[in-house]
Design goal:
With 246 residues, the protein is mainly α. The protein has helices at residues 15-34, 43-60, 69-86, 93-113, 119-126, 130-140, 163-168, 175-193, 197-208, 213-220, 224-241; strands spanning 152-154, 160-162. Mean pLDDT is 80; it is low at 1-9 and 153-161.
């Protein structure tokens, strides 16, 4: 791969040069996110969003900061794709009400028991059967509102950053914004530590090891559908622990 001019003394790269150099990076991020999105999302749409993020990142890049160009545009590419996925964050009123009820049950039962509630306790609290509770998890699992990538943090005055964006860290943020993010990451770590063991393992395998639901199912000895249910439950529980409203 050729070397891209990345310094203030170099001429700005053309769009064609950017695509030649960084299209594999765009495809990589698209492939990673496609493993976690509903079937309605097309790979080509994610790539198009990433290309726009790449071009925008090239315009925003500040050569005076001690930041590698590739690191910065990688952040912008992934961020543009996540913004595109956020556009699909809609949910029928009844389904949103169910998600709110489940999240509220996590908070109430956590306070009552002093520990994470299991699904039997949650279903009983909601006065529904286990089967109906799991069916509700199935219904909300494809919505971005129950996706760990998309849990929001107020990163600055202009936009909300997702948790994974926060963990990666925007290399162009100032010290005050970085401190705000570090405080939030500490809050996030505390919430993760309070998850049941299996949900804690799920976070590690899915978001850090980047395994698929199918691969995780094999490791945990569960069906792929059951892992998806646990994922929805985990994210709703995380939202409850962190006081994030739907």
């Amino acid at each position: 791969m050729s070397s891209m001019p990345l310094y203030a003394s170099d001429p700005a790269p053309t769009p064609d040069q950017l695509l030649e150099e960084f299209l594999p990076l765009v495809r990589y991020h698209a492939d990673q996110l496609m493993r976690r999105t509903p079937d309605s999302i097309e790979m080509g749409d994610l790539i198009n969003a990433g290309v726009l993020g790449l071009l925008d990142g090239a315009q925003r890049f500040d050569h005076s900061r001690d930041v590698q160009f590739k690191t910065f545009v990688s952040y912008r590419v992934r961020g543009a794709m996540i913004d595109y996925l956020r556009a699909f964050d809609w949910m029928p009123r009844g389904l949103r009400d169910h998600a709110k009820e489940m999240q509220g049950a996590f908070a109430e039962l956590e306070q009552f028991y002093g520990r994470p509630a299991n699904e039997e306790e949650i279903a009983r609290h909601l006065e529904i059967s286990i089967d109906e509770y799991r069916q509700r998890l199935n219904q909300v699992r494809s919505m971005s509102v129950v996706h760990f990538d998309d849990l929001p943090i107020a990163g600055n005055q202009d936009e909300d950053l997702s948790i994974l964006e926060t963990l990666e860290g925007d290399p162009m943020l100032g010290p005050e914004q970085q401190n705000t993010m570090m405080e939030f990451v500490a809050q996030l770590a505390d919430a993760i530590s309070k998850l049941p063991t299996r949900e804690n393992v799920l976070i590690t395998l899915y978001y850090y090891e980047e395994l698929t639901m199918k691969e995780i199912a094999l490791i945990l000895g569960l069906t792929e559908s059951r892992v998806s249910q646990l994922h929805s439950q985990m994210v709703l529980r995380m939202r409850s622990l962190m006081g994030l409203n739907l």
